[in-house]
Design brief:
Radius of gyration: 27 Å
Low-confidence stretches: none
Oligomer: single chain
CATH architecture of the largest domain: Sandwich
Largest sheet: 10 strands, antiparallel
Number of helices: 7
Helix content: 25-40%
Order of helices and strands: HHHHHHEEHEEEEEEEE
Shape: elongated
Distance between the termini: 84 Å
CATH class of the largest domain: Mainly Beta
Structural class: alpha+beta
Number of strands: 10
Number of domains: 2
CATH superfamily of the largest domain: Jelly Rolls
Mean pLDDT: 85
């Protein structure tokens, strides 16, 4: 019987051996029950290490499905709305409540007002959560002031063809115009600081 290959099993299981070494180890495993048993145990250990505990997975899924999925964006939401981070987190808890979305501006385009901080109020800005359903269009419009749109979930495609995804901030200067569409199959939810707008050409 050829020498055991236990020392090479770690490299074999991790995929670090070259083809010639792999061939030699596999040939040995076919004829050596002891080494094959070691290899099976290593495979099982690797699978266990690669798979997080079920409880951890369940906790992660629950977090990603609730308001906590926005927590890493709270500081940026606070900046858009000119409010504290604690206030931003409180506002973000409203997003999953269907009653939040009671104002439909255009088909598939919904807004939910957010109480702004003093600077935004002084500037006359509108501060809202914006929800655009997949394929729904926010019509062409001219900005009455600098618009800031932070994508919280999903994404949209601008009339220019530029896509904006979760975590991206779209800033538009006063006087510019555009339209955008919720990405197919995704749509988007955004935090927006905007100003009175007029219809575009």
């Amino acid at each position: 019987m050829s020498e055991h290959v236990v020392d090479e099993l770690y490299g074999y299981t991790a995929g670090h051996l070259d083809p010639q070494e792999v061939s030699r180890v596999e040939q040995h495993l076919r004829s050596c029950p002891d080494c094959r048993r070691e290899a099976d145990e290593l495979d099982a250990l690797q699978d266990e290490l690669a798979s997080p505990p079920k409880s951890a997975l369940q906790a992660l899924v629950k977090e990603l499905a609730g308001p906590a999925r926005f927590a890493h964006l709270a500081a940026r939401v606070a900046k858009v709305f000119d409010i504290t981070e604690a206030e931003a987190n409180e506002q973000l808890t409203r997003i999953d409540d269907p009653k939040t979305w009671d104002t439909e501006l255009w088909p598939g385009v919904w807004v939910a007002p957010v109480n702004a901080g003093p600077k935004a109020v002084e500037e006359g800005a509108f501060t809202v959560f914006l929800k655009v359903e997949p394929g729904a269009v926010f019509p062409n419009h001219v900005h009455g002031g600098e618009e800031q749109v932070l994508v919280l979930e999903g994404g949209y495609v601008d009339v220019s063809g530029t896509e904006y995804w979760r975590g991206e901030l779209d800033v538009r200067p006063k006087g510019t115009s555009h339209s955008f569409t919720g990405l197919p199959g995704l749509g988007c939810i955004c935090a927006a600081r905007t100003f009175p707008v007029t219809g575009g050409e």
